[in-house]
Amino acid sequence: MFTRDIGVDLGTANTLVCIKGKGIIMREPSVVAYDVRNDAVRAVGREAKDMIGRTPGSIVAVRPLKDGVIADFDVTTAMLKRFVREALKGSLFSRVRMVLCIPAGVTEVESRAVYDAAKQAGATDIDLIEEPMAAAVGAGLPVWDASGNMVVDIGGGTSEVAVISLGDIVTAQSIRVAGDDLDESIVNYIRKKHNLLIGERTAEQIKIEIGSAKEYEGETTIEIKGRNLVDGLPKNVIISASEVRSAMSDTIAQIIDVIRSTLEKTPPELSADIIDRGITLTGGSAMLRGLAELIAEETGMPVTVAANPIDCVVLGTAKRLEANSGFENYVFRRGKRFR
Hints:
The chain is an alpha+beta fold. It has two domains: 3-134 and 313-329, Nucleotidyltransferase, domain 5, CATH 3.30.420; 141-305, Nucleotidyltransferase, domain 5 (2-Layer Sandwich). It is built from ten helices and 18 strands. The protein has helices at 46-49, 73-87, 108-120, 131-138, 179-194, 200-210, 241-264, 268-277, 291-299, 312-321, and strands spanning 3-10, 14-19, 23-29, 32-35, 40-44, 59-62, 65-66, 69-70, 95-102, 125-130, 149-154, 159-165, 168-175, 196-197, 221-228, 234-240, 279-282, 303-305. Helix 2 (73-87) crosses helix 3 and helix 5 crosses helix 6 (200-210). Mean pLDDT is 89; it is low at 334-339.
C-alpha cells in the first residue's frame, strides 16, 4: 500500500511520465538549466527549454540525453529526480517501482546508466523495456499473437524499427538518426544557402510549420530570424516548404533504408503478415507531413500513423504496470520483475 508504480518514457526530446491508475500526468521537454558556479539546477522541462540560447554565461541549458542514451549522467539523474518528485507531489509513498524504456540497440553500459539514474532518482524496483516493444503495445498492436507486427518508432534521438511476434522482438534495428537530425539538417541548409545562423528551436519550428517528406497542397513559406554570417547583424529570410523538404531528404532517406533493411531480415511468414497488417509509425517525428506516404511508396507496404504517436511508448509502460498485462513472459534487460 505504500508503493507507487511509475512508467517513464525517458526520451531525447521529451520525457513522459505515467502513474498506475492515473494515466499520463506529465509531458516535459528533456532539458535542464543549471548554474555552473554551484551546479544547482535552476529549471527543468518546459521552463528550461525556453532558456535554450538565451542564458547568461553562468547558466547552461542542456539536453542531457543524446541519440536516445544518457550523455550527462548527473544532469539526467537530477532531471529524473525532479520529474519523480513532481509526479509524487503530496503522496506518502515510500517505495517507487519504475518502468523505463531504452532503445533496442543500446549497449550494456548504456542500459546500465539508465538503470543507475533511476536508482539514484529513488526507484526501488526497476524494469527496462525496449522502446519498439513498448511503442507497439501502446499503439494497440496484437504483439502477443503468433503474427508479425512491424513498428517504426521515430523519436528525437533514435529511430527504432522492429518486427514483433508472440510477445517479443524477432528482428530489430536502431539508428541514431531521428527528429534532432532533421532539425540539424535544416540549420545546416540555411547556413550554407542563406548565410544565416539559426538555433535549434527555430529549426524545430520550421519543421513543424512547413516541413514535409512529400509535396502537399497549400505549401507556404515562413519568415525566420537569425544572425547574418557575413556581417554578424540580425537578418530576416523567407524559406519555402520545398527548401525545407530538400534539406531533410538525406536524413529521411537514412530512416527509410533502415526500414528496408529490417524488412529484408524478416522471416517470410512474418513478412506475409506485415503485407496484410502494414507498418505502424510511432514517435513525435512520425507526424511529419507525408512521411507515412513516402515510406509506403518506398517499401510497397501499407503504412499508418498511430492514433497518439507521441504517447505510444509511455502508454506501453503503463500497460506493463497493469496486472495480467501480457508482459509476464517478456525478458527484461535488467531489474526485478514486479510481483
